[in-house]
Amino acid sequence: MSDQRPVGVFDSGLGGLTVLREITRQLPQEQCMYLADSREAPYGNKSVPALQERCEQVTAFLIDQGAKTIVVACNTASVTALAYLRGRFTIPFVGIVPAVKPAAMMTHTGTVGVLVTSATAQSDSLAQLIASYSHGSQMILQECPELVALVEHGQLKGPEVENSLRLEVGPLVARGADILVLGCTHLPFLSEAIGHVAGPAVRLIDPAEAVVRHLGHVLQEHDLLNRGAGAPPRYFTTGDPEEFQLRLGQLLDEPLAEVAHVEL
Ligand code: DGL
Predict the structure, then answer these.
(1) What counts of helices (H) and strands (E) characterise the chain?
(2) What distance in Å separates the CA atoms of residue 193 and residue 172, rounded to the nearest whole number?
């Protein structure tokens, strides 16, 4: 059996594109639909009920467009709304959560910096992950709203980026962190700049590769893999389609991608 229906992927804005590019790399035969909920960005300062309600609307839209599975390409939405979504829809969901478990296994100093949004930092799911998997390592949570905003504005390097990084990443390194968990999907776009400020002794963990490997297993398990040829992603935004197209050119080298505006 081959299932040609698309994989639905969403985030508050551009961050989930770091997961989308990994899906395209690992599962090139799958077609994706990406929804950037830019009108509601950032998700990181919303309440749990507001996030659950919004994620339900976004998911319903993607299912309506024919999605066979949903990738919640946002740590904030996953830690606050994934269980809720699974309770409301029958199709499979794949989420992304801060990579606390591998970080605890990799650290030599016993100190890990976890870069997240405010809503992720306050979530029960992250508290549970840390309680179950930190194995005595110290997990220092650092909120990074500035970094999310920089990526949304397409600023990936330069003095303003370095200043924000010195404020949001510098203290983690100063306290001995040798691993930084990129616990927000916007952050891999800043990997180079983060590495520059953190220095060569600090390793960054982006869970996208593991998440997409898991997506492959989920598709296989539910007999949802597309065994035919793939097609380029379809893009939707609740914000400004021209601005999104500009960022697609900059971040994914897809300047000609078509972007549709949706009212949700
Ligand atoms: N990209 C999102 C995450 O992974 C959230 C950014 C935001 O909208 O605050 O958490």
Answers:
(1) 12, 10
(2) 15
Rounded (10°) angle between helices 48-64 and 75-88: 70
What is the set of domains in the chain, with CATH numbers?
7-96+208-261 (3.40.50.1860), 100-205 (3.40.50.1860)
The answer to whether the CB of 14 falls within 8 A of the CB of 240 is no
pLDDT confidence of residue 18: 98
Query: Which tokens go with 220?
Result: 């296989």
Sort 108 into a burial class: Cβ within 10 Å, 0-12 / 13-18 / 19+: exposed
Instruction: Say which residue the tokens 């065994």 belong to.
Output: 227
Ligand 1, atom 9: closest residue by C-alpha: 44
Q: Which residue shows structure tokens 């199709």? A: 91
- Residue 102 is encoded by which pair of tokens? 């591998």
- Flag residues of the chain having pLDDT under 70: none
Give the integer Cα–Cα distance in Å for 82 and 58.
13
Helix (H, G, I), strand (E, B) or coil at 197: helix
Which atom of ligand 1 has the smallest separation from the CA of 118? 9
User: 42 preceded by cis ω (within 30°)?
Assistant: yes
* C-alpha of residue 186 to centroid of ligand 1, in Å: 7
